[in-house]
Amino acid sequence: MEFPKVFPAQSQPRRPGLEYLMVPQPIFDRPERARSDRLQNKVAVITGGDSGIGRAIAVAYAKEGADVVIVYLDEHRDAAVTKEHVERYGRRCLLIAGDIGYESVCQAVVKQAVQAFGRIDILVNNAGTMPPFEKGDLMPAEDTERLFRTNIFSMIFLTKAALPHLRSGSSIINTASIVAYIGYPNLVEYSASKGAVVSFTRALSLTLVERGIRVNGVAPGPVWTPLIPPAWPKEEVPTFGQTTPMRRAGQPVEIAPAYVFLASDDASYMTGQMLHVNGGMQVGG
């Protein structure tokens, strides 16, 4: 499959961005790939599952036999498309809209998921936001708090709410970023929030290992998702991702297999780890 290396200049006025407005549309599925039923009859809760990497994870999990709960903010049109593709693979999909930066919303999400499916086997803490890429001072306090609520508080709140329903063999997977390891100029707070995700993953894995619950993460490099058009300078979008050794941005469909692996029994001897899917960028840790 050929993946685009150059994107048209574009921007979006709101955050999070909307996938249906992106040109070209992110690639989130490879229908020709055979199913292997590695997640047969499991139930997965995926935050930020309406679009981008989250959509690709949801579709990949459905192909592997899982029912899916998609949690998103308010991108209803994108979420409906994800639900359609999950159901196309014969699996059930529950859509839940809400701001998971608040603990009460996370508690409600878990309650609805358990009421609908009776269990939770996999929790994917994937939702995230990125501030506009602007040179200058650090962000105002209220914007920093908003960023951390979405990027790390939500993971803590949702994990806390889900833990009473997770059993031995369950899996928690957190989305970090390459910027947690290399930093990024003018994205100081975003880099810090993703660094917190890495530390949260490592500490939580040690806390839950005796319960048989595995906790891992994925640290993607530059990926063509709805985070990019609202945040990246319009004139730099055409070359987005070209600083990687592969000289292009990744597509969500290329990231999702890491989440399938970590959720499956194939990763039964892995916990507290980060998978780096980043186009060849070398990082430590």
SSE map:
Layout: E1 43-47, H1 52-63, E2 67-72, H2 76-88, E3 93-97, H3 103-117, E4 122-125, H4 141-162, E5 171-175, H5 179-182, H6 188-208, E6 214-218, H7 228-231, H8 252-263, E7 274-275
Parallel strand pairs: 1-2, 1-4, 2-3, 4-5, 5-6, 6-7
Helix pairs in contact: 1-2, 1-8, 3-4, 4-6
Characteristic key phrases:
seven-stranded parallel beta sheet, 285 residues, alpha/beta, 8 helices, Rossmann fold, globular, 7 strands, single chain
Q: What name does CATH use for the topology? A: Rossmann fold
Derived from helix and strand composition plus strand pairing, the structural class reads alpha/beta
Could you name the CATH homologous superfamily?
NAD(P)-binding Rossmann-like Domain
- What is the overall silhouette? globular
CATH architecture: 3-Layer(aba) Sandwich
How many beta-strand elements? 7
> In CATH's first tier, which class applies?
Alpha Beta
- Kindly estimate the percentage of residues that lie in beta strands according to DSSP: 5-15%
Tell me roughly what share of residues is in helical segments. Answer: 25-40%
The residue-averaged pLDDT reads 94
Q: Note the gap between the termini.
A: 31 Å
Question: Helix count, per DSSP?
Answer: 8
Sequence stretches where pLDDT stays below 50 over 5 or more residues: none
Question: Can you tell me about this structure?
Answer:
This protein has 285 residues and is an alpha/beta fold. The chain has one domain: 3-Layer(aba) Sandwich (Rossmann fold). The chain contains eight helices and seven strands, in the order E-H-E-H-E-H-E-H-E-H-H-E-H-H-E. The protein has helices at residues 52-63, 76-88, 103-117, 141-162, 179-182, 188-208, 228-231, 252-263, and strands at 43-47, 67-72, 93-97, 122-125, 171-175, 214-218, 274-275. Helix 1 runs parallel beside helix 2 and helix 3 packs parallel to helix 4 (141-162). It is globular. The mean pLDDT is 94.
